[in-house]
Amino acid sequence: IIENQSLEAASWKLSKGILEIVVRKKNYRVVPVLIKNTRGSPLNDVEVTFNGQKVFTSTTDKDGIVNLPLALDEKIEGINQFAINGYQANNITPSDRKYIITADKIAITLTNSEQQKNSKPQSLDQDYFRNFDLKNLDSIQSLTVFYSIFKNFEMEELSKEDIKRIDAKFESLVGELEDAVSKRSAVTVMNNISDTTYLQDDIQNLQKQARLESDLLVQQRKEFEDKIAIVNAKLEQGFDNLNKEQRAELLNDINQLEQLLIANESQFYKNQSSYQQIINSLREQFFDFEELEGKLSGSEAERLREKELFRKRILAILAVVLLFTILIVLLIYFSLRLKKQKKDLALANIEVQNMNDNLETIVHDRTRLLEQTFAELDTVLYRASHDLRAPVCSIAGLCNIATITSFEPNEVIDRMVLTNNDMDKLLKKLSIISEIHQPGNFSKVDLSS
């Protein structure tokens, strides 16, 4: 199904598992028309003829709808454009993208002459049919009259020549009936070809028309030969009774007949030549179309090959792009990692620099403290040396005094003991100062055990 309603399928071809459909733009639009009677019931299987830009004849479906193919610029102007077989179209109204036609059934009424004509065979005396003169056989123009005359006829009493004439007349009437049916069929076949029909159906209809024309030619030739034989028989019987003027008139008629036959033959060959040219043109167009289909198949195969190649190229490009993307991601990752390491190194350098600065400050402070401590130690040692020197000098002096004086020894000893105590205090102070500046080894002691 083609979703685009403005297109239709022109032809199709299945080749190498590929279905190719050639579409063409519609030059018509389909308008549904509902045919119903005055009671509102749809009229199905009714022949409808539409007289528009082209005459279109179709039959309604089971729902009473007939689809009219109209040109794109064509409109339904009125009810007078419609002819419904056996019905009289009264009015037409548009409704929901379709048209509704109300029609009345036509009541058939015969005129007086027709009634007399139809009733004449019934009102004829049966003796007329029974005593029918076979000389008036050519006056019979229909199978109905033929049957009315010969249904009660005593065929056994007729001669073989009369029976042969009756059979020939019957075959002639049947041939005329078949000829009329063939002509109506030929007209119907030709009416089925229009701009809205499919090409394959048109070719089949043309084939049907050609077969019908061939059958008609054979039949007409046979009838013409039969009529010529009758004319020859009549001429053989009554030619001697004709006068000079009648013979000249008859010869003139025969010459005109000959001219007509020659003209018909020329027209026939002209038509044959024209038909042959048309067929050759159609054949060339068909082969051109096949060549076009071959080119389309080749172009489709080339398009598929290019599509496959394009797909492979796209996959290769995607693979390369993916590879470059991974490389770019890795580069970005390592770059960020290097930047982070650089930043960490910078922070570490700053921290080391700060530590170096702090160490320099600490070293400077410690050096200054050591210098102060050494200065204080020098002062203390200097004082301690004087303080130690004083008791030593005192003891030395007391020893000298003891040797040169006559004091009691106890007093000198007391002085020496006192001096010795002073020295001992001084040494304890020095020991305490030494312990303060030289911290000892401490360890934890578990008091709970």
TrEMBL record:
Key words, A-Z: Membrane, Transmembrane, Transmembrane helix
The cross-references to SUPFAM superfamilies, in alphabetical order and at most eight, read: Homodimeric domain of signal transducing histidine kinase
Q: Does the record bear Transmembrane in its keywords?
A: yes
Q: Give the stretches traversing the membrane.
A: 314-336
Spell out the InterPro entries in the cross-references: HisK_dim/P_sf
User: Which GO-annotated molecular functions does the record name?
Assistant: phosphorelay sensor kinase activity
Highest taxon, organism lineage = Bacteria
**Is Transmembrane among the key words of this record?**
yes
- Which residues are in coiled coils? none
Name assigned to this protein: Signal transduction histidine kinase dimerisation/phosphoacceptor domain-containing protein
